[in-house]
Amino acid sequence: MREDLLHFIWKYKKLQLKGLQTTNGDTITIVSTGTHNYNEGPDFFNAQVKIGGQLWAGNVEIHLNASHWYAHNHEQDKNYNNVILHVVWEDDATVFRTDNSEIPTLVLKDYISTSVLQNYQQLFSTTKKVFINCEKDIASVDSFLFKNWLDRLYLERLEQKSILVLKLLKDSNNNWEQVLFLMLMKNFGSTINGDSFLNIANNVTYNVFKKVTNKQQQSESLLFGLAGLLQKQDITDTYYMELQKEYAFLQNKFELTINDEVAVAFFKLRPTNFPTIRLSQLSSLYVAHQTLFAKLMQAKNLSEIYAVCNVTASSYWDNHFTFAKESKKSKKKLTKSFVDLLVINTILPLRFCYAKYIGKDDNEAILEIITSLSKEKNSIIAGFTNLSVNVENAKEGQSILQLYKQYCVKNKCLQCAVGSSLLSRNS
């Protein structure tokens, strides 16, 4: 038995509502269960309950054992003085407020149907579970309910990604263009070099970087120099030497220093993901669009975003992946799949936050764009697909990731629409 089941039973009134009584024999009528509180304080705020014919308005606290009231020191906390009903599974103690007045107690186990308990035990049974708790039943959940839940989960995921955006915004004194630069740097670095690229971006203000985006070579020299890629003295490659010279000038002009913590990696990366290629592509993006932030925030659809991101690394990289070592000639263009990741992880979360900041409702455009994207390919989405859950696009893919990471893994089944639906069957 878990306390979250008791929360679920109370919240959705999954109990026998007629004939409810306190442990002292007073009749109970639930008018309103109140608002579920997931933070500190009583579990449900602003409930309305008739006890012995008297209507009470206040808070409800829920415990497995009544004695947990004392284990959690609620008798010493004034925040619990407004508790009008103590809802428990086992009544093993009488509880009092700080003024020594007794709090009425409802023992839930006396009013629960066996079907609720059976559904709960089946949901959390570990027998042969290999992926998620509801893997045997998730495909049978009503499709309309499930799709609506996925829509809510995507917006929840955007809210979660907003945490980083808002932190960067605060650190940059509300400079949205710098936030975009920081986020693009992190995402151009992907998993291996993301943190290193972000450190590079933190070593130079966006205002300084903006001053060198009129020329590709200057822009590249700044990024390569801050990444520590221009420190070798034994390379006689003409372009490399030009970048060294340019960076020395910029370093002196803007008083730049290389952060010793920055260490970009090539190991375990495909050549197209080498930091040299990604930094050049990012440089090209800013050189091509002097108003990049505005264009990305105002793009009406996915096609316009693709048009903005239609850039390649500079011509030197047509036959190079690293300095001074020639390779087969090929244009190092930003691929559709890479741009899709930028849209998911950078552009849309930023648009979501920016729209709220300026008081604009951009959700329709955001949902249209994310729905136009193909779903990602990863083990989590594959796991749900194997359970006959149809994931149609990137919005649903992001929702599935949110579902798995924030609910399934954490066993928050009773806060999930799927788990709630399964638990409510035949009850």
From TrEMBL:
Protein's name in the database: DUF2851 domain-containing protein
Organism this protein belongs to: Cellulophaga fucicola
InterPro entries: DUF2851
